[in-house]
Amino acid sequence: MVKLSVVVPFFNVQTYASDTLLALRADAREDIEFLLVDDCSTDRTPDILKRAARELPGARLLTHEVNKGLASARNTGLDAARGEYLAFLDGDDWTAPGHFTGLLAAIEELGCDFVRTDHVVCTGKARKIARVPVGRRGVVLKPREAILPADRSTSVDYPYAWAGMYHRRLAERGLLHFTDGLRTAEDRPWIWRLHREAESFAVTGPRGVPGGLGLFYRRGVATSLTQIGDVRQLDFLRAFDQVLGETAADPDADRLLPKAVRTYCAIIAHHLGNADRFEPAVLRQLRTRAAAALRRMPQPVLDATLDAMDAERAVRLRRLRRRAGAAQGGGTRAEVAA
Predict the structure, then answer these.
(1) What's the pTM value of the predicted model, to 2 decimals?
(2) Which of 106, 123, 294, 296 lies at a CB distance of 3.0 to 4.6 Å from 219, suitable for a disulfide?
């Protein structure tokens, strides 16, 4: 019987893969399996993983013949997983000894559908703790109630799939798989669906790990899509369109849509505020597609959202919204460019 399956996608992370695999070894035991998914790496990562498949207890190597992206790589691991519980780790991050076994002990003790845990953000030698934005710790809560309020950071704003552990029954209900083909923001529809549909969760740390901090996220990796300004970054628009569409169909749509719209607007404003990181053609696509996204949102909810946002972001989004309206209404070139 496999108690825990850990899904670990890898893509061109030869510099970090050995550290990740060494960390996994510290949690190896006979009822834990590690699903190592090579997403068609073109560096030395495949050689590192082949060796790990021979030497790391519980390791199983799964390979993609073509690069499919993080969402699909995680799905490949999920489809092959045999564990009663499921967890994720990215191939350039690492864990403290006992992280997975300690989190397994916590979720079994709590008896809930899933748990979320804090992590440490590592940028070079700098370290910063990132906390799950939920005040009550170590108690079982209803995920749906952790989506709101709309104007504060909540559990759905902490979307990292690797910052938690999940019971298999969620996978059997179709709640753990990611939208295939999303290259970025793949965890946004995922975290929203999890909070709308699952019945119970808790925020906790791994048992036996000092300070309850056993997860280390490596920020600023050159191959990460968060560092790249090409067209793949724009998948966040498809991801949030999915969030809005699914939330609009929810029985609590009137309560939940303001949160979904506000988050979508905040992400659009963030990308517009970092325009210099995008290639010129991609920036043009961003502005055009983001303007169209604003037009698709429920307009009364969008009006209320913009009224409540800080002036800088609200002005940026209103300008984009006017541009979309002028273009749709056949305005002059000067009006459209305003």
Answers:
(1) 0.92
(2) 123
